[in-house]
Design a protein that fits this description.
256 residues, alpha/beta, three-stranded parallel sheet, 36% helix
C-alpha cells in the first residue's frame, strides 16, 4: 500500500540514462515495476510537443508515473517542479520529492527537503521523499505527512550498495509508512539485502540503465527484490559464531 494505492511489485524504477526510449520501455517491462519515476526537468512528458515523449512508450494507464524533482537544489525549485507535473498529468498527486545539497555527491539537503515537504503536503500532494539515512529526520518527514520515506543506501549512481544497514534498521523499526531504499543499489544482491532488512521496496535507475545489458539486469533486479522479500518473511536462521551445526539430524546415524 502506497499513498492509498496497492501495488504488486516492490521494485520501482527510473527512466533516465538509457540509450533511447525503446530501451527504457524494454527495461521497465522486464523489471515488472508498476511505479516508474520521471525526472520532470529532464524528461519530456508533454512539455515540448515537438519532441518525442516518454508517454509514447510507457502507457500511463499501465504504469503509475512518479514525477520527481531530480536536479532541484532548493525547496522553491522542487515545489514549482511538482506543481508543473500536476498540471501536465491532469492533477496527478503522487510524487517523489528530492532536494539535493551538492552536485558532486547528490546528497540530500535535508533542511530544504523538510521545507518543501511541508508545502507539498499542505498543497494536497502525496509525497514520497528521498532523504538521508538519519532516523530522526526520517521521523520528522513522516510526521509532516509524507506517504513513504526513501533513505539512500549510498550515494546516487555510486553502486556501492547498503553502507549503513544499522541506520536503515532504525528507520524501518520506527516507521509507520513504507520505507523504500533509494539510491546506491548496484546489483541484484544489493536489492535482496535491502528487502531482507525489512524495506518495503527498492527504487533504482543507474544500476539497471548503466549495466552491460540493462534489460537482463532489470530482470535480475526483479528476482532480487522478490527473493529478499521472501527471505524476510521466512525469517533467517540465527547466526552462530564459532558453533557448527550439522545440517542433517544426528539421531540414527549408521554405526551409532
Amino acid at each position: 500500500m502506497m499513498g492509498g494505492q496497492t501495488f504488486r511489485s516492490r521494485l520501482l524504477v527510473g527512466t533516465g540514462k538509457y540509450r533511447d526510449f525503446a530501451q527504457t520501455r524494454d527495461a521497465v517491462e522486464a523489471s515488472g515495476a508498476q511505479i516508474v519515476t520521471v525526472a520532470i526537468r529532464r524528461t519530456n512528458i508533454g512539455q515540448d510537443p515537438a519532441q518525442p515523449s516518454l508517454l509514447d512508450v510507457l502507457d500511463p494507464h499501465r504504469y503509475t508515473l512518479l514525477p520527481n524533482t531530480a536536479g532541484c537544489y532548493s525547496a522553491m525549485e522542487a515545489v514549482r517542479t511538482l506543481r508543473l507535473a500536476r498540471e501536465l498529468l491532469d492533477g496527478h498527486d503522487l510524487v517523489k520529492l528530492e532536494v539535493l545539497g551538492s552536485p558532486e555527491t547528490l546528497y540530500p539537503n535535508m533542511p530544504e527537503t523538510l521545507k518543501a515537504a511541508e508545502v507539498l503536503v499542505r498543497d494536497g500532494f502525496r509525497v514520497m521523499v528521498y532523504c538521508s539515512d538519519d532516523p530522526v529526520q526520517a521521523r520528522m518527514l513522516e510526521d509532516i505527512g509524507c506517504v513513504a520515506i526513501m533513505p539512500l543506501a549510498s550515494l546516487i549512481g555510486s553502486g556501492m550498495g547498503i553502507l549503513n544497514p544499522w541506520n536503515l534498521n532504525l528507520i524501518i523499526d520506527a516507521a509507520r509508512v513504507p520505507v523504500i531504499v533509494d539510491a546506491g543499489v548496484g546489483t541484484a544482491s544489493d536489492a535482496a539485502i535491502a528487502m531482507e532488512l525489512g524495506c518495503d521496496g527498492v527504487l533504482m535507475n543507474t544500476a539497471i540503465a548503466a549495466a552491460g545489458d540493462p534489460v537482463r539486469m532489470a530482470t535480475a533486479m526483479r528476482f532480487g527484490v522478490e527473493a529478499g522479500r521472501h527471505a524476510f518473511l521466512a525469517g533467517r536462521m540465527p547466526r552462530r559464531l564459532y558453533h557448527a551445526s550439522a545440517s542433517s539430524p544426528l539421531e540414527g546415524v549408521i554405526g551409532r
